[in-house]
């Protein structure tokens, strides 16, 4: 959260997501451009340092990726139904999958969007003419996560296109939707 300084007009708090919406290669290029390196060899040394840091992060998160793959195994719709396990083991696997997904998404700075927030957004944004009716009771679990957001202006046509007006909305940059079907016994 950021607040205006005492010298400025009324204090406004701006919510910012804790991530940089820029590609890694663009950051490295900007640092090389503005870094004040004197010799071309220093450019290559800096690139090598960045590659090593990337390899360290890849290694660090590789175990989490493997855990997600292992936890998802029994929920893969392409899996042979005869390879499924007993109900108790399936429940443990489901809990492990949710835990692993929560851990990875939190580390990647995703924020869970509550169902109340989604319902409020549908009520407030009737101008967009998107009707979405999904009986959540038909699913075991439905969860939304977001990372990054910005304001965007949309033009809405009214009266069969005779009148147009602009509406500003929050738009989520990255979204993860987790939907779990109910077990066959349910």
Widest sheet: strand ordering: 1-2-3
Radius of gyration: 23 Å
Contiguous helical run count:
4
Mean pLDDT: 79
Overall 3D geometry? flat
Written description of the protein model:
The chain contains 4 helices and 3 strands. The protein has 186 residues and is an alpha+beta fold. It has a 3-stranded antiparallel beta sheet with strand order 1-2-3. The longest helix has 33 residues, at 40-72. Mean pLDDT is 79; it is low at 1-13.
Provide tags for this entry.
186 residues; alpha+beta; three-stranded antiparallel sheet; 23% strand; flat; disordered N terminus
Question: Topology, pairings included?
Answer:
Elements: H1 24-34, H2 40-72, H3 87-107, E1 111-113, H4 115-124, E2 139-158, E3 163-181
Antiparallel strand pairs: 1-2, 2-3
Helix pairs in contact: 2-3
Could you provide a short overview of the structure?
With 186 residues, the protein is α+β, with helices and mostly antiparallel strands. 40% of the residues lie in helices and 23% in strands.
């Amino acid at each position: 959260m950021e607040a205006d300084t005492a010298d400025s007009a009324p204090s406004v708090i701006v919510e910012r997501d804790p991530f940089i919406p820029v590609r890694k290669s663009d950051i490295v290029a900007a640092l090389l451009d503005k870094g004040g390196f004197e010799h071309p060899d220093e450019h290559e040394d800096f690139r090598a340092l960045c590659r090593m840091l990337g390899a360290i992060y890849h290694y660090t998160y590789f175990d989490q990726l493997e855990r997600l793959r292992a936890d998802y195994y029994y929920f893969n719709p392409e899996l042979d139904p005869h390879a499924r396990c007993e109900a108790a083991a399936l429940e443990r696997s489901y809990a492990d999958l949710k835990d692993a997904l929560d851990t990875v998404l939190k580390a990647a700075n995703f924020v869970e969007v509550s169902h109340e927030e989604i319902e409020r957004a549908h009520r407030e944004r009737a101008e967009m003419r998107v009707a979405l009716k999904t009986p959540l009771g038909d699913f075991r679990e439905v969860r939304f996560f977001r990372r990054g957001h910005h304001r965007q202006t949309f033009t809405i046509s009214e009266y069969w296109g005779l009148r147009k007006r602009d509406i500003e909305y929050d738009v989520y940059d990255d979204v993860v939707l987790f939907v779990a079907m109910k077990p066959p016994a349910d």
